[in-house]
Amino acid sequence: MRPSILHPLFADVVTLPGVGPKIAALMAKAAGPRIVDLLLTPPTGLIDRSQRPTAAEAEPGARVTMRLKVDSHDPSPAKRRPYKVLCSDPTGFVTLVFFHARRDYLEKVLPVGEERLISGLLEDYGGAKQIAHPDHIVDPAHADELPLFEPVYPLTAGLHQSTMTKAMGAALSHAPDLPEWQETTWLAAQRWTGWREALRTLHRPDGPGATAPSSPARQRLAFDELLANQLTLALVRAARRKAPGRILKGDGELRRKAAANLPFKLTDAQRVTLKEINADMASPERMVRLVQGDVGSGKTLVAFFAMVAAVESGAQAALMAPTEILAHQHMKSLAPLADAVGVTIEALTGSDKAEARAAKRNGVARGYVNIVIGTHALFQEGVEFHDLGLVVVDEQHRFGVRQRLALADKGPQPDTLVMTATPIPRTLALTAYGDMDVSAIREKPPGRKPVTTRTIPLERLDEVIAAVARAMDKGEQVYWVCPLVEESDVVALTAAETRYEELRARFGDAVGIVHGKMTSAAKDAAMRAFYEGALKLLIATTVIEVGVDAPNATAIVVEHAERFGLAQLHQLRGRVGRGDKPGACLLLYKSPLGETAKARLSILRESEDGFRLAEEDLRLRGAGDLLGSAQSGMPRFRVADVSVHGELLKAARDDAELIVRSDPKLKSERGRALLTLLHLFERSEATKLLSAG
Ligand code: ADP
Ligand code: MG
């Protein structure tokens, strides 16, 4: 239950003076529907009205504030012409321009012969300086009414800056004085103010740097947000540690045999990761471990050895894949390894006939089947196990902590291994996976075929299509990735469907399409047709990221590569060069390329190290865009920006650890204030845990 002290903050913005249902709807779009959403929307910039240039000095194109004398009014003779007010100072003239003006009003605020402080965007109009609809007109006697530093908020069509600013002022007056949840010595050392004071500084800035990410007010508020995040993860982790686990410790015999059967040796990175996993499994606490590693780094094999370890100690293991086709692929690659050491393995899939399905399920329930492979969906429906000891979740970077918890709630709590092929920068891993232990496989098996990466402007599309035709003639397969599904007026991106029609007109039935708006059965069918070779060219939106192995795919074309995140492009590139032929990755971009986009694409050409790319991506783009998609499972921060507040994040993590150790139920005075913080950021995962236990 939300503490009553927070209620005013969670009121609808429509309750603010001057905000009707129409404006409220726009605000909901730009910031959020409630007062707290407004307050936690930091300004994106600042208008500085502290400088006072003369009419001669003032530069057209800038927002300026001048002290001008009103010389005369020139009401418009015709309806369509604007009303003009001619002003000057000793150095020159400036004309104020008003459309649809109310004469009596203008005569009142701009009396002839008097001076006024005028602030607005200065324009050049046929050699003359003019300001259309000034932002502010203030009597110099009341100069303090002119805000010297005005915040600029993110807007949406129809929503004005002044409306936002006014609403923000009203919202500020709703902000209660909350109990301090930060540690007093830390607060003093940082020279931070209290929460309400910091909010006020953020929205009523008193200097040019007051809203910057490095400003004390912004840092304080960012730390609040990060602490709420880290405290939640720490509480989840602590609760999980309390849940009884089991000791899974085999004699190593099966694993030794399985290793001896491999035609290669495990890499050092695989060995180290397995050691970490085995130590977790052998301990009485429940394992919740994330394995990060690039595409092709050998995660699946690591998962296999972990599952064999579970089998050695008499338990069953399950491997959950995100799609049917991936489940089939895992089965195909792991079955021979399992068979060779006498471990029974079965894949449960949606395409099983009723009889086969019943038989498999029976085998699983009775414990004859040691390792089960299936889709997430299937496991969520419920599969009865004889004794499930280990669950491996493949490619789960799209899951947030909330979903992971939901999954864990489903049944008894086996050891859990999550595998992701999206390397995440260390700082981000803390925010997204802080509830888990993390292993990283940074080394790839030897003998990988390199993928050549080239960047090509879209204007040279014809050459690219010719290259694709040559590859197809040689019997090779090609992926073609487009960023959007439908043509949109706003973002004129080449849509997958348009490109599909075009390429189909040229290459015929060898061309297929797969995109996010298709049913999962239709997606699977298209992927399978490509995987089995019936299709030679697959047009796709980024759904193919999820990772299907088509060993014959030698090239991938990415349109509008400048729109993708580095990590995403790297993932896509990982789709080719998986067989015995080297791969090519053609990144098509729309010129001219911005500096950041240029830098990103060139890093991609230089490096095939997913971890390095992820760090660079964070540095270049900021955390918000990192995975390029809202459902990435990454927490979204409103005030904090992990690309600049990384140090604060680490401090928040340490603080959270200490809190959970010293006051796990949040009962102390600070603890109760921290509970308010969790409610403020709506960390229901944490507040539910606290009220349950
Ligand atoms: P990931 O799941 O990380 O994408 P996989 O486990 O599917 O990677 O491995 C990719 C390929 O590399 C597979 O064909 C696998 O057999 C092979 N492989 C895995 N580990 C090694 C190794 N240590 N040495 C050589 N090849 C390996
Ligand atoms: Mg894999």
Model description:
The structure is a single chain. By secondary structure, this protein is of the alpha/beta class. Among the domains are: 50-146, Nucleic acid-binding proteins (OB fold (Dihydrolipoamide Acetyltransferase, E2P), Beta Barrel), CATH 2.40.50.140; 253-441, P-loop containing nucleotide triphosphate hydrolases (Rossmann fold); 451-607, Rossmann fold, CATH 3.40.50.300. Strands 11-12-10-13-14-9-15 form a seven-stranded parallel sheet. β3 and β4 (92-98) form a beta hairpin. α9 runs parallel beside α10 (299-312). The radius of gyration is 31 Å and the shape is globular. Mean pLDDT is 87; it is low at 489-493 and 624-632. Bound molecules: adenosine-5'-diphosphate and magnesium ion.
TL;DR of this structure?
This protein is α/β, with parallel strands linked by helices. The protein starts with 20 loop residues before the first helix and ends with a helix.
Number of strands: 21
Spatial order of the strands in the main sheet? 11-12-10-13-14-9-15
Query: What distance lies between the first and last C-alpha atoms, to the nearest angstrom?
Result: 15 Å
Mean pLDDT, all residues: 87
CATH superfamily of the domain at 253-441: P-loop containing nucleotide triphosphate hydrolases
Which CATH class of the domain at 253-441? Alpha Beta
Q: Based on helices, strands and strand pairing, what is the structural class?
A: alpha/beta
CATH architecture of the domain at 253-441: 3-Layer(aba) Sandwich
CATH topology of the domain at 253-441: Rossmann fold
Strand content: 15-25%
So what's the overall shape? globular
Radius of gyration: 31 Å
Q: Which stretches are low in confidence, meaning pLDDT under 50 for 5 or more residues running?
A: 489-493, 624-632
Oligomer: single chain
Helicity, in percent? Answer: 25-40%
Bound molecules: adenosine-5'-diphosphate, magnesium ion
Largest sheet: 7 strands, parallel
